[in-house]
Amino acid sequence: xxxxxxxxxxxxxxxxxxxxxxxxxxxxxxxxxxxxxxxxxxxxxxxxxxxxxxxxxxxxxxxxxxxxxxxxxxxxxxxxxxxxxxxxxxxxxxxxxxxxxxxxxxxxxxxxxxxxxxxxxxxxxxxxxxxxxxxxxxxxxxxxxxxxxxxxxxxxxxxxxxxxxxxxxxxxxxxxxxxxxxxxxxxxxxxxxxxxxxxxxxxxxxxxxxxxxxxxxxxxxxxxxxxxxxxxxxxxxxxxxxxxxxxxxxxxxxxxxxxxxxxxxxxxxxxxxxxxxxxxxxxxxxxxxxxxxxxxxxxxxxxxxxxxxxxxxxxxxxxxxxxxxxxxxxxxxxxxxxxxxxxxxxxxxxxxxxxxxxxxxxxxxxxxxxxxxxxxxxxxxxxxxxxxxxxxxxxxxxxxxxxxxxxxxxxxxxxxxxxxxxxxxxxxxxxxxxxx
Length: 436
Fold this sequence. Notes:
This protein is 50% helix and 10% strand. The protein is mostly helical.
């Protein structure tokens, strides 16, 4: 009597995923049928030998439902092969069962969207929120293209959902997108769709590179071949013009009376705090805690590079912290960007709160720039570049600026400062032309 059982192969290291396979035994001879599906150990119940949800998110449950459906179909076809061999009355082996199973045809595997959602969930479990958001953004763009492609009434590119921190929607498609459908023609039409929608080249490249990473991950799991369909689309990075405002404009913003406009006031203060702290990024500002202050110095680790930076704490910095101390009572953080209580662990909701706050701050900074006639789209990133510009104008050596900004190399700093030099050349040229 033959037996067919679903098994889970434990991963080699912590934080990795294990694989699912069917164990087929006949006349004490065991064979494995690999499914090509990988799941986290937290999604496998060893006592019940079954899949369980690691989280109760809608997307996670739907992913597991798709995996269960695939496994149920695969097991049904295995038993169908076994039944046919038993009905023949002829002797057969375990290999004969697998051979007949392959002749019947394996069931369709996960769709690209289902697989990608599984990777997004896995990355979030590992604490890699930024990579998960990048994958999610690419899938939102691909989903918009795919739904437009399969809607015969639609003639315009679908509008992309810019709230990329929200869970990926799961809607019934007329035709699901499987890995074998992902060819060069489809990728090129996806790129053309994005261009018609007004998406810039760097953003298109961002989507393509993340989609390629997802497909290559699926290839490592045996679901498809490695991505070789991106040769005719743009996956590079265009150098974008760096924007900075002059020191006198920073002074103008700092001294402006915005007490009647609290949202603009808060955005201005966050910009000034970043400038005062040598262009500290908004994500690092959001995670500053009292323990980062000691002996008159602020010490923190850049979340982007892991590099530790130390800044002399100034009265101007403390004034901004004091201004919002009432809004931070009971909070673990110095600035009211994330509402995290003492002893509470940071999760996905706090990440969404950070992203939402950053969007509001940048939106209000843009309004400030329009009101002050700065002619620059003011964002938190401009504070970082403006500090580098001011340091160069004060004849601070590039090596010192690089160290102050936490750059890995002076080459990165030189890219920052290149546009500053170009602006000075343009100013000189304008004066020459004006004298003609």
